[in-house]
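Recall from the previous chapter that SMILES is a line notation for molecules. Here it describes adenosine-5'-triphosphate.
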Amino acid sequence: MSISFESCSFGYGRAGTPILSDLTYTVPMGFTVLLGPNGAGKSTLLKLAGGLHQPRSGTVRMGDLTSRESAYLKQVAWMPQTIIPMTGLSAREQVAYTGWLKGMKRPQAWDAALSALDRVNMADRADVAAKKLSGGQLRRVGVASALVHGARVLLLDEPTAGMDPTQRRVFRDLITGLATDEVRVLMSTHDVSDLAEEADQVTVLQQGRITFTGATQAFLARAPEDTPAARRAEAAYTSVSALATAQESW
Ligand SMILES: Nc1ncnc2c1ncn2[C@@H]1O[C@H](COP(=O)(O)OP(=O)(O)OP(=O)(O)O)[C@@H](O)[C@H]1O
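With both inputs in hand, we obtain:
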């Protein structure tokens, strides 16, 4: 089951400029990379999908449930750009707390927190104070918090931002492995190098409009034929962006 946007419009504040206008989009199967320039609306889209904001018009839904319903919120997990360590809590307690907020019973959340930390290779740090974790470790705690309640759609807002290339690759591999037949992962980034070959799908958002969504191979095919393999993702992105800009100015 996936999240669908049906003719959604959204702006911040009552009369704020529309950030998303009449957006219709379904989060694809597998692992999807959401690309777009700064300010395109990627975080906004993820927050709407996560039920943190509600559309001014239109509906965000998963099957029969709309994003206004608590049953919907239990099916999705949103990971913010910045993970704030909770004072006085261990890594395990912080993850369990998120599970509890999502409606899990305490013992269930406690057990699930350890399993989730294990999936992100942090089981050995479960009892360390969250405040004492490194930036990369905190991101792992963020991913564990997204996994703890068994959501069907994981919404990750720039989880690799600010990482060096090696860290970025390790972290991206970890995230890629989270997508299964039952679990979809939508990960935003404005760094095209995040488009690893393992990504199943690519969605491009520009100025609040989806200008491309489809299989990674179809996206890469937008690059000029003679583009070297190492530059294909970037060239494809440039080509999609240029086409959208040209259509806009018509
Ligand atoms: N809380 C807010 N109040 C008012 N405007 C906001 C708020 N959050 C975001 N915006 C505006 O909404 C637009 C889209 O922002 P958003 O953060 O969704 O883009 P983004 O694609 O995620 O950008 P980035 O890659 O820089 O994180 C921007 O113009 C931004 O200034």
